[in-house]
Write a structure and sequence with these properties.
There is one protein chain. Helix 3 packs antiparallel against helix 4 and helix 6 packs antiparallel against helix 7. The chain is 72% helix and 0% strand. By secondary structure, the protein is mainly α. The protein contains 12 helices and no strands. The protein has 2 domains: 139 residues, Tetracycline Repressor, domain 2; 119 residues. The protein is globular, with a radius of gyration of 19 Å.
Amino acid sequence: MKLLKQIFDFYLNSSIHVALSCYALVRITFHVFHIQYDEPMALFVFFGTIVGYNFVKYDALVRVKKNPIGTQLKIIAALSFISVILVGYYFFHLKRITQIVSVGIFAITALYTLPFFPNRRNARNWAGVKIYIVALCWVGATLVLPLINAELPSTMDFFIKCIQRFILVFVLILVFEILDLANDDPHLQTVPQTIGVKKTKLLGFLLLIPFWFLEIFVSTFNIHDAIINLIMVVMLMLFIAFANTNRSKYYTSFWVESVPIFWWLMVVFFR
């Protein structure tokens, strides 16, 4: 049992789970815009997420705090190194414009992590902006890049889906911020720190209304996808409603981050 827990913790700590969530959103983008499966694009995002998230999570731990590196962290470092190689491999299979935009997303990740600014600060320390930076990066990686690589035009459907994707990620992060309220630096001015937990939950509920209703305005609107999106809304509402600072770390790191995976599985199995 202990071994299973160690494997499960490694799966989460190495960012494989969050990478699978991003991969799922890319597959949903393919489904929504009727794009044939593009392996280099999907795997570029998958391995890029592992690299990006591990960079954000462990850069400060290794570079700034200089803590002793344990066995699990060494394995994560090895996985990240392999992922960097695979990201490079798939990068050169993307269209030129996709490569340029992906470099821009990486640059935002670097600004978010590394102390480029005065007083050795990074964008992550800017009050109130973390949630917007993360949501924009997810929209860019899981929606904008696949459409650019497929050379599809920027239609009204594209903008609607960008708004929906942004809302989805924003709401997911709200749940994380509620659970992290006790541990977050007050200077971060996260949404729960600024308006309180009750109002944060209300905000999450309210945002899910346009998330669902915008689906009606998509040119390829169909009842099947609308029902799946409604199930998604109910699922997200439950996660928001039961979020509190006493929840286990697995509540967000596994269950909440599984929402895009559940969404993709519903699209695959309930056609």
